[in-house]
Amino acid sequence: MADVSDEPNGTSSAPSDPPGPALPAGPQPEEIRFFGTTWVDHDGGYALRRVGVALGSLAAAAAGAFVLRFAYEGLESGNVGRLVSLTVVVMFAICSAIAFAKTWESFGRRVAPSKEDSSLRGLKAIGFVGTLVAYFVRSLFEAPGEKLHRAEYEQAKAQYDRRRSTRTGNPAARRPKRKK
Question: Is the pTM of this model over 0.85?
Fold first, then answer.
């Protein structure tokens, strides 16, 4: 196959891709699942996204409860006994309550990964209905995690502005002159 480049070393003299848009200086907001960065200025369909997240999480929680109902009916038709059926219902209720509490807590503060969180992962998976209900309730007020992200973003902007603020005068001129 013949080399079609114009340059002797085999490279093309065609211009490279034009540079992309310059990134703005300073801290950038962190994206939130389903919302991207629309939470910053509440633009770009933010209200519709909140409605969508609320309805979606409520529908998913209802579907999950419906599936759990079928599981309970399966236990009943299997004649496993009232104690086992009651234990399963109580277990799902406790797991859902813990999942709700942990999810709600994660909207308000960053939780450092720990062994406790990894050990609760299975419990939170069993209580998925609680997580979905937490998303539903939180999305009625704001994007889930928006308050935390906004506080962190405002703090980062303030720190950036303090670092970038210009000094008045020349600092070298303020140094006392040495006596000879």
Answer: no
